[in-house]
Specification:
This protein is an alpha/beta fold and 500 residues long. It has 3 domains: 111 residues, 2-Layer Sandwich (Nucleotidyltransferase, domain 5); 162 residues, Nucleotidyltransferase, domain 5; 139 residues, Orthogonal Bundle (Hypothetical protein af1432). Helix content is 47%, strand content 17%. The strands form 3 sheets. It has a 6-stranded mixed β-sheet, with helices on both faces. Strands 3-2-1-4-5 form a 5-stranded mixed β-sheet, with helices on both faces. α5 crosses α10 and α14 packs across α17.
């Protein structure tokens, strides 16, 4: 087994997959190992936006090597995140199903704004403390992230679908670097990035930092040629573009500092970087040491403490839609108590895993009435729609959809759920939430004394025993529980109510 203080982050980028292993030492994160492999999955999307078999095989092979290195790590100390290519890929579920088995850990497809948040988190942690207003730019293989922030707090986050791999394929398909192709690539990049002129206007920041990918590659070339270290200037960009045009193609390029795996995509990346400089009136860009993978590591560490950004975002969304906080807390307290009874003994569900299920159930309880601001009729459907169509910092797309399904399923018929009810933990969370809403229907603390609830997961039966006196004292609740039993009859699960 690995020491408890080891953490691992995996970045499944469009051009490269990266593994960063860090260790907490005296309150600081210290690098233990870093592995980068050029996978270039972004090149593997066909005209229908499906990953080719070859692209998937390259990814699986890489993840097998990463998985061997982090075998034995605690699940809560590993975070693997996938970005733009897998956001776009229509057959991503095919790739991810096998990828998760090979790696041995979950893989999260994150939204563009979440990618931006993690990039800023990684960059800011590795910069000196300063009150300066920062602009951070990360040009990846198929997307470009821009963030405004101060110290460790990001204020504006955006992701644009333009990157080194995509632009190299589109504007330099045969690797032909010409003045006209660069001009076309830069104009097209500016068209995509046009709104950035307002959001990231020069008046909004003091210092510009570039992170990872293209920025690092360009900086390496310029430094090797004698330009100032860790800095990119307009003059440097012009010089590099001139050298690429003179070389005409990647095969002819002879420049110190350019790695072989970067040559095929440096033209597209350079065109996007030039467009960013022009649009945002950047004269020079500092090269940052932090990146997405570092942000994922710091995020893991913060989740172990009291700074899980996801909880803060749930609270923000609930406040924004004016939910009844006292009712949400009442439902949450009841639902968590029920889930504790429904979950197997601690020998089968580790305390760490149990707390994760309880936390996510609490989020669903806090948000189950968000749709009421839109309409009291079918408010659960409106709440689910909100969760499926919003970007909440810290959440993956799959996490948000799972939350949306809990909100959607907390009342009414169960056939509307997209997630299969063969996920035992989901069913237990859903059952706990639905019953809690019933017990709290009068918007006051429920009387649960003497109730006995059990779950037979093998037979897919949840049974609830109440006394005849309880049912007589709470007739409306007893009626709703009978209706709940009927609702589950149309599924593979059964909810059995026993009175007496």
């Amino acid at each position: 087994m690995q020491p408890k203080s080891l953490y691992a982050a995996i970045d499944l980028g469009s051009n490269s997959f990266r593994l960063e292993i860090g260790q907490m030492d005296a309150g600081q994160l210290r690098r233990v190992e870093y592995i980068k492999e050029t996978v270039r999955q972004g090149n593997g999307l066909d005209a229908e936006r499906n990953l080719t078999e070859e692209a998937m095989e390259r990814g699986w092979d890489c993840l097998a090597r990463f998985g061997e290195r982090i075998a034995g790590f605690r699940p809560s100390h590993v975070r693997a995140v996938a970005t733009q290519t897998l956001r776009e890929a229509r057959n991503r579920d095919v790739f991810l199903a096998k990828a998760k088995r090979i790696l041995g850990f979950p893989i999260e497809v994150i939204a563009g704004t979440e990618e931006a948040r993690l990039i800023y988190l990684g960059v800011s942690h590795l910069l000196p403390q300063s009150p300066e207003r920062r602009l951070v730019v990360d040009i990846g293989g198929r997307s470009t992230e821009m963030i405004l922030g101060q110290q460790e707090n990001a204020s504006t986050l955006e992701s644009y679908r333009v990157g080194s791999v995509a632009w190299s394929m589109k504007f330099f398909p045969e690797g032909a670097w010409t003045l006209s192709s660069f001009k076309s690539a830069e104009i097209a990049a500016k068209a995509v990035l046009d709104e950035a002129q307002v959001l990231f206007n020069r008046s909004h920041w003091d210092t510009c930092y570039g992170a990872s990918g293209t920025v690092g590659a360009v900086a390496d070339v310029l430094t090797a040629a004698g330009w100032p270290e860790e800095k990119i200037t307009r003059e440097g960009l012009s010089w590099l573009k001139d050298r690429l045009i003179k070389a005409q193609s990647p095969d002819n390029l002879r420049l110190d500092g350019v790695k072989e795996d970067r040559k095929p995509v440096i033209g597209g990346g350079l065109a996007v970087l030039q467009a960013v400089f022009d649009l945002l009136q950047i004269d020079e860009m500092q090269v940052a040491q932090g990146a997405l993978r570092h942000g994922a590591l710091y995020d893991l560490i913060e989740r172990e403490g009291t700074q899980d950004v996801r909880s803060a975002m749930v609270e923000w969304l609930a406040q924004r839609f004016g939910t009844d906080k006292s009712q949400a807390d009442r439902v949450s307290k009841t639902a968590q108590s029920l889930l504790q009874a429904l979950l197997p003994a601690s020998a089968e569900v580790a305390p760490e895993e149990r707390q994760r299920y309880l936390k996510k159930l609490n989020w669903a309880c806090q948000l189950h009435e968000t749709g009421m601001r839109i309409s009291h009729s079918d408010y659960h459907k409106h709440g689910a729609y909100i969760l499926d169509n919003t970007d909440l910092q810290g959440f993956t797309l799959d996490e948000l959809h799972r939350l949306s399904q809990l909100v959607l399923g907390h009342r009414g018929k169960l056939r509307k759920l997209e997630l299969a009810l063969d996920d035992i933990r989901l069913v237990q969370q859903l059952m706990a939430l639905r019953l809690a809403v019933i017990f709290c229907h009068a918007r006051r603390d429920p009387e649960l004394t003497g109730l006995d609830i059990q779950c037979d997961a093998l037979r897919r039966i949840v049974s609830l025993k109440v006394s005849a006196a309880w049912a007589e004292g709470w007739p409306q609740t007893a009626h709703l529980l009978r209706e709940e039993s009927n609702a589950w009859q149309k599924t593979d699960w059964a909810f059995q109510l026993q009175i007496g």
